[in-house]
Specification:
It is found in: Cytoplasmic granule; Secreted. Keywords: Antibiotic, Antimicrobial, Defensin, Disulfide bond, Secreted, Signal. One of its GO terms (cellular component) is extracellular space. With about 100 residues, the chain is an alpha+beta fold. The protein folds into two domains: about 25-65, Antimicrobial Peptide, Beta-defensin 2, Chain A (Roll); about 70-104, Anthopleurin-A (Single Sheet). The chain is built from two helices and six strands, in the order ααββββββ. The strands form two sheets. It has a three-stranded antiparallel β-sheet with strand order 1-3-2, with helices on one face. The longest helix has 16 residues, at about 1-15.
Amino acid sequence: MKLFSCLTALLLFLLQAVPGLSLPRDTLRCVGYHGFCFHSKSCPEPFAAFGTCSRRQKTCCIDTTSNFHTCQDEGGHCVPPEIKCLQEQVGLCPHREWKCCTEV
């Protein structure tokens, strides 16, 4: 049993440490936003499409009934970090580093 635990720990370490063995980047981004990956191109209710998963083979869907709302739903615009916002607001942007601004 100890051997199995050690092998499992080693496998998990390798999946995180070796590039290309972990989850695809778009899937990690989706999960980071508390999203779910669906096989269909459209999301079932109460989910909204928020990008792709599994190297663009699946659709990333986020729950619209949760506290996680997209920037555009809140009336903002997603901008890269180098642009300064006059007023920031809460909202999800497709790129993790980007911010949600009401005024740029």
